[in-house]
Design brief:
With 661 residues, this protein is an alpha/beta fold. The protein has helices spanning 26-47, 59-67, 95-101, 143-149, 163-191, 222-236, 238-242, 262-273, 292-306, 333-347, 369-372, 388-398, 410-416, 422-438, 446-458, 468-486, 522-542, 551-566, 599-626, 628-641, 646-653; strands at residues 54-56, 71-77, 80-91, 125-133, 153-157, 204-206, 251-255, 277-281, 310-315, 355-361, 377-382, 494-498, 508-511, 643-645.
């Protein structure tokens, strides 16, 4: 029941209060609305034409006043004429005055009806200013001469624009600017996070109403799922743990290589528990402005506590949780302030708060020790690469929506994809589907998966080499790798040899282990060194010269030999492990740490690495010299067919010797 999942406060007075949604700031909203309205009203009143004591005269009456020398000045704007009188006149004039002013004729009696309607538009009174309309259609070429004769001041201007158009032209940009600031103010009020909302968290919230991810959608991580089931049970039934005084772990750190499904596991925990899920990357906390990241951390945890019970998932935690004070010079102030705020928020949880922080990283070694102490990230759950059974389960999930042919065997695919992560397997299925569509097939064949696997492991195939000498050198190089691996029982079996360029390689020898390996013996590592040196040695024997094609082989062989000597005690220096800074993530961090061994010991390490490589080189030289005939046969086959499979290798080289138990 819902009541059983709601914890009471320490006084036992009911559920603890939770912050609700922020109330709107109505006074500020009203102020932002009233200011633009007041400005608009003020400008309309200021620009509104004011009433003047003007009389509207007929054009003939205007001419009569000009002839009577009673007009002081006129202003002509288009067809509108305004002006002022020298002596004020009374309008409309008395009936008898008007009749006397105009000669009476019996044929055309002067009556009120015969006058223009404009005679009666102005109220009776005395006026000193007038306006009239110039007859633009008929015209009056004598007007200006008449005005000059009677010494009338004439002023001419362009016709004025309509009031609405003038308002829009002068005030629309300002109104637009005011509207923009009002909109930005509303945004700032709603976000409650300062100017432009920089301090607001960018976390994406997934509610239970959206499509859910459950543990059934996650395969190949059974141990991690079992560790996370306790977190799910806490979110479902928190009262069971609170009643006995237990404190659930506040933070769970998911550790594993990239692509193993750490983010998917976090969403599955939320889906199983049926609670809100806040997801974001740690890099989204950090901005160029100091303090923004800390503000976003506070906002994120405020949202999570308001939605409790909830899960906060932070991906790539090492982007913000790196060790403080490492490296040369000053640290990143913004990142360190963000980390400090994250530490405070996680340490400030109420013991009965139903919020769990899940974080994922593939670099736990670079995290600040304060993050990993109990009370913050109490648990670390390792999400490793899937085994054969896990890979088969992942393939089943990713092929649900694919149209597979009858020859597709997921068990065989799981066996041949050793070392693939969940993301790699998803990419494999998608590449196979793309290949099938490219060949206009409605079903995906097993050969499509094989071609897709070659593309992922070896790279995309490029056009074959044209120069016969280059093809011959590459054929000897790859045949050397394949022959050494074939006649070295401890080495991984050879699946395919090709001299078709793939990616940046001119040729490839593909080896796949038969079983899952968790520990590597000295015999196996020596076999790997021998296979790496087989290509260079074959060039020396068959061609009598060496090329740059063995560069990557020599780099990998040297790195492996150095790890055997310095980390695993497999050299002549005894049971001593020497600290190496090959994977030091912090620039300059090793300067303050110092080296734990002397220069003389470093020279001995270099000599031991060189000895291991020289011993393997001599052994490989003897092997290839003794199998020279089979080396030539394999080179001939490669030059003819470009690619040789395991079945062809058996025909050319004979049965492979078995390793002794």
């Amino acid at each position: 029941m819902a009541s059983e999942q709601t914890p009471k406060n320490p006084q036992g007075q009911g559920p603890p209060p939770q912050p609700g949604p922020p109330a709107p700031r109505w006074p500020q909203i009203i102020l932002w609305v009233l200011i633009p309205i007041a400005l608009i009203v003020w400008n309309i009143v200021a620009l509104w034409p004011k009433a003047h004591p003007e009389v509207t005269l007929p054009y003939s009456a205007f001419l009569a006043q000009v002839r009577a020398s009673n007009v002081a000045m006129v202003h002509i704007a288009g067809d509108q004429i305004t002006g002022s009188f020298i002596k004020s006149i009374r309008w409309p004039a008395a009936k008898q005055e008007t009749t006397a002013a105009v000669p009476a004729t019996p044929k055309a009696p002067l009556t009120k009806k015969s006058l223009s309607p404009q005679f009666d538009t102005s109220p009776p009174g005395t006026y000193s200013e007038f306006q009239t309309t110039f007859p633009a259609t008929v015209g009056d070429p004598n007007l200006i001469a008449m005005l000059e004769t009677h010494k009338v001041v004439v002023d001419v201007s362009h016709p004025s624009s309509p009031l609405l158009l003038e308002l829009l032209a002068n005030w629309f940009p300002m109104l637009l600017l005011l509207g923009f600031f009002w909109w930005m103010g509303m945004r700032a009020t709603q976000n409650q996070a300062g100017l432009f909302g920089l301090g607001r968290s960018k976390a994406r919230r997934y509610s239970e109403n959206q499509s859910k991810v459950t543990f059934n959608d996650v395969a190949g991580a059974d141990e991690a799922k079992s560790d996370l089931k306790e977190e799910v049970d806490f979110l479902r039934h928190p009262a069971k743990y609170h009643n006995v005084g237990a404190r659930i772990p506040r933070g769970v750190l998911l550790v594993g290589p990239p692509g193993t499904g750490k983010t998917l596991l976090g969403r599955a925990v939320a889906g199983e528990a049926g609670v809100p899920f806040f997801s974001l990357s740690a890099s989204e906390f950090v901005e160029m402005f100091v303090g923004v990241g800390a503000s976003r951390v506070r906002d994120l945890f405020t949202q999570a506590k308001a939605a409790a019970p909830a899960i906060v998932f932070i991906d790539e935690l090492d982007a913000v949780g790196r060790r403080r004070g490492a490296g040369i010079g000053r640290g990143n102030d913004e990142r360190e302030q963000t980390l400090n705020q994250l530490l405070v928020e996680m340490d400030g949880f109420d013991a009965r708060q139903e919020v769990i922080v899940l974080a994922a990283t593939n670099r736990p070694d670079v995290l600040d020790p304060a993050l990993l102490r109990p009370g913050r990230f109490d648990r670390q759950v390792t999400v490793g690469l899937p085994d054969r059974k896990g890979r088969e389960g992942i393939l089943c999930i990713h092929t649900r929506q694919l149209h597979l042919a009858a020859d597709v065997d997921l068990a065989i695919l799981a066996r041949t994809t050793m070392g693939f992560s969940g993301a790699d397997l998803a990419n494999l299925c998608n590449e196979a589907a793309l290949l099938a569509a490219r060949h206009d097939r409605s079903e995906i064949l097993m050969s499509d998966f094989g071609e897709a696997q070659d593309k992922i492991l070896l790279g995309g195939a490029r056009p074959s080499l044209v120069d016969p000498r280059d093809r011959r050198i590459v054929a000897y190089h790859e045949s050397g790798h394949a022959l050494v691996a074939w006649f070295t029982p401890a080495a991984d079996p050879v699946q395919k040899v090709t001299i078709v360029p793939h990616g940046r390689a001119l040729g490839v020898t593909e080896q796949l282990p038969t079983d899952e390996r968790y520990n590597y013996s000295v015999t196996y590592l020596m076999a790997r060194l021998a296979v790496m040196l087989g290509g260079r040695t074959a060039e020396e024997i068959a061609i009598g010269d060496i090329t740059t094609g063995a560069e990557n082989d020599l780099v990998e062989a040297t790195a492996l030999a150095r790890r055997m000597v310095t980390r695993w005690g497999m050299g002549s220096l005894g049971l001593v492990a020497f600290k190496s800074d090959d994977h030091q993530p912090f620039l300059g961090y090793d300067l303050s740490q110092g080296r734990e061994y002397s220069e003389a010991t470093a020279a001995k390490i270099d000599q031991e690495v060189q000895r291991l490589l020289e011993d393997r080189h001599k052994a490989v030289h003897e092997l290839l010299t003794g199998q020279r005939e089979k080396l030539e046969s394999l080179v001939k086959t490669l030059l003819q067919e470009d690619t040789v499979t395991q079945e062809t290798l058996v025909e050319v080289l004979g049965p492979r010797p078995q390793a002794q138990a």
